[in-house]
User: Fold these one by one.
Assistant:
Number 1:
Amino acid sequence: LELQNDLRQAIDRGELALHYQPKIDGTRGQISGVEALLRWNHPKHGMVSPMVFIALAERFGLINKLGNWVIDEACRQTAEWARNGMRMRVAINLSVHQLRESGLADRIGHALQFHGLDASQLLCEITESVAMEDIKATQRTFDGLARIGVFLSIDDFGTGYSSLNYLRQLPAQQLKIDRSFVNDLESSEDARAVVSAVVSLAHALGLRVVAEGVETEGQRDILLAMECDELQGFYFARPMPADSLFAWSQGEK
Ligand code: G
Ligand code: G
Ligand code: NA
Ligand code: MN
């Protein structure tokens, strides 16, 4: 209950922040984009995990306020980086509530316009299970976002139950293989078979494949051999504050 009240005020008090984790291009080995991950630095409890407070926000009707803050802040930061010569695509995560919000595409369109961004600089990640939970809402929202030119990604792929026919119809550009498969790559032939098949499937559907949760050199090598397009994980970099990400990307050049 205490956290719930604190969360209401966290935005106004500036306690929320986005951290950014690089995605690495498999062919060039350079940063191809970043994923924005929400952080709450609580004055008493320190860093509270989004696993905790996003569930709270959903339960107490604060998820739209939180989600809107993420949209605006990610766009603001992307524009600031572009002004400083770092032009790249920034990904945000969408909750199931945002997906059902009928005005989401308009809201995102306005944020892009307000910050002077091209729609292709923003990518929205939706987990496979959320996308399949409400297929109608997903289709409507994806179509709306695709119409304004925002890129779309299916997150945590392999953990939900996708209908392949439905997947085929979604206007997405990217598919992220869930980190549980990546984790098992070196020890499990089955995991290698699944990942290899998912890469082929995604490519056949015209989707770029991102492997998330890459933690070792061995995993990286296997994924590159499978022609995975982009890699993301602690092996390359942890999520970090915006200024650290900028410095990190300068060091990569
Ligand atoms: O960053 P971390 O691994 O702690 O994130 C935990 C979970 O919170 C992940 O499932 C991640 O997708 C989710 N998450 C992080 N930031 C956001 C956000 O801005 N919006 C939503 N809806 N989920 C987020
Ligand atoms: O659900 P989603 O895929 O958006 O989750 C993102 C979460 O994954 C973030 O909280 C981030 O901290 C975490 N993460 C990113 N890279 C790694 C990694 O290499 N290993 C593990 N275990 N978690 C990671
Ligand atoms: Na994500
Ligand atoms: Mn994911």
Number 2:
Amino acid sequence: MRILVTGGAGFIGSNFVHRTLATRPDAEVTVLDALTYAGTRASLAGVEDQIRFVQGDVADESVVEPLVAESDVVVHFAAESHNDNSLADPSPFIRTNLVGTFTLLEAARRHDVRYHHISTDEVYGDLELDDPKKFTEDTPYTPSSPYSASKAGSDHLVRAWVRSFGLRATLSNCSNNYGPRQHVEKFIPRQITNVIDGIRPKLYGDGLNVRDWIHVDDHNDAVWTIIDQGRIGETYLIGANGEMNNRDVIALILELMGQDRDAYDHVTDRSGHDRRYAIEAGKLRTTLGWTPRYESFRDGLEATIAWYRDNEAWWRPMKDATEAKYALTQEVVA
Ligand code: NAD
Ligand code: TDX
């Protein structure tokens, strides 16, 4: 099977490539990645000689067209992915997430190539902390940020291409991922690398915001399950019942790293900050038989901390610039 992985030098995409090569001997992998600030070939170290790597933009038709034409499956991870960046400058989010998806869809349509679209639970907006309901495939779209609005728009494009053009596509909307090779701008790696550097972790607002954490390998196993068995045109929510508020996550990181559980700072809150995400993944579990393998968030987090401790050379080049950018908009409030 010839598989084109867009965004394969980013966090989830690179983990997908590593996992695919380890578990799918029939896969011939091509990675298409623009190597923005968020992508690095270092994330493909150890597998570079088993894949083809193409540096290019998913919104550039001349790059996308021949690569899609010679593929059996496209898995589209490439995106601008960080909410805070989308508040500072939404424009690359529109180009990559909307025009990029459109460009891939058109190529997949021309060549009748199977397409899987990677998306996020943030398209569903947020939930109250005490809401007994979780997101399902039927929850209406109410995205809050430029990032989540651009992902919502990309999902709508995929569904329209299925209905109007018969594109053979599936979609998945996953909750917050954690694991190795996640950029240090994101919540968990930012705090782990802060503690390693002797900087106090930074909590937005009151820190009671809840995220539904899933290990990146569980996400990627679910993606393969959907590629193998998913019904064309269907959307599957991916989540592993990992709800935890940010305050508790920071306290756990501090504890696992041998610090006081309250040794963190409160900083300026994110504008429009979603309160809570929670996924009901019953459809994926029941109809396709997927189950997560990481049952303990504590164990998965401990392994992730160990990865950042052991791989400083991977994250060090991005750390100072990331913190300098945050310093422009965030200050310690307590
Ligand atoms: P990431 O920012 O770590 O990686 C994105 C990758 O895409 C990078 O390698 C970057 O260089 C590449 N890229 C960006 N613009 C590009 C362009 N125009 N052309 C080609 N490549 C480009 O992101 P991630 O966290 O790995 O997220 C991957 C996908 O998963 C995204 O679609 C995101 O919306 C989705 N998702 C992420 C999470 C999460 O918790 N991180 C959860 C659910 C869904
Ligand atoms: O320093 C921080 N302190 C803090 O309290 C950072 C960076 C974040 N936060 C909070 C904001 C969120 O409530 O932690 C939570 C998680 O933040 P992010 O890592 O920025 O993730 P989130 O905004 O929830 O979005 C993530 O999950 C859904 C991914 O970045 C998206 O790509 C994905 O779609």
